[in-house]
Amino acid sequence: MKHQIVIIGAGTAGMTVAARLLNANSKLDVAIIDPANKHYYQAAWTLVGAGTFDYQKTARNMGDLIPKGAKWIQQAVQSIDADNNKITLDDGTDIDYDYLVACPGVKYDYDAVEGLADTIDKNGVCSNYTDPEYTWKVLQEFKGGTAIFTQPATPIKCGGAPQKIMYLADDYWRKSGVRKDSNVLFLTPGSVIFGVEPFKSTLMKVVDRKELQLRFFHRLTKIDGKNKKVYYDIVKPFEKISHLCYNYSDVDDSEIIEDKAVYDFDMLHLAPPQAAPDFIQQSSIAHQEGPSKGWINVDQYSMQHNVYPNVFALGDAAALPTAKTGAAIRKQAPVLVENLLHVMDNKSILSKGYNGYSSCPLVTGYGKMVLAEFNYEGKRDSDPLLSKLFDTGKELYPMWILKKYGLPFMYWNMMLRGKA
Fold it and tell me: How far from the centroid of its chain's Cα atoms is residue 296's Cα?
């Protein structure tokens, strides 16, 4: 079986690219490979985890979303042979292609943290990435004590998500009356809560207002869910643990010895470590060495593969030094489609039009949101029109309305149809 263009993955990236290609030329032979029955608007799962969005409304039937004219191959990919322009599916079928767009998303690497696979979504260990409805259950059942929110050491999709649910949880617990009996900690292997100004300064004000404790240079290594203990390596030398903290206060149930830390918890929210799917890591389209090993080796400005000119990639599995978000895909997709069509027309000059734009809608409480937009240079890159109306670097109610109502509408009705 052969197709002119094969897209691996029917997530945000795959759907958007397929729609844009067929909008440009309805006669293109486009196939999308994805085994899933459902397509989820995962950006709303933070709100689901805080009890302010219906989980069922984040899901649509995959078959209803596949762009008209595209062939849906409902299988999983087993391997990619880019040297011979061939994909092998799990059932052994080979799919040949002229051009490949790889956007399979990420997998959750549960083996990267000891005990994680055994305790995720139970024992008070929750994650909006895996089961936001369980997160909401945990928040409601929390009656005080130590609440830990933690970030992994790997790249993850929506890097701000682990802290957004913390801000919402704090709001909920203040309303329910248990916050006064609680310690709320955010533990991260990084050195800052957010890297781009003015958003960082705004978030630090939120941290102060909510009396949240930040502990930096903490890399999650193990979870003992039954005994409610979580283990970290401290990845920076220190004389006093307070030197690696912000809003430090001693947590009585913590044990810190040399470069190891153990905390008791009453609830734990985490983002699981993430990686490119195995068939990507094992293929020649992935970086073979270096800090991007295992992620797709793509030009960060053109979305064209650095080795195979008939291969393109975007989205979460691509080795792009920016945040893995749907907003980033919205800017990557038109550049990729333009360049793919140029290559098909034997045009050698490609657009280097993607500047690393990404956006993180940072919900800081019920009815409040900061819209952090930035680029490869780590500088603010706010939408010119939106910036004329609002200072998106501040906590605003209109940004909350955008998050809860505007962005889902745009996603389903415009972005997935190749119109935004």
Answer: 16
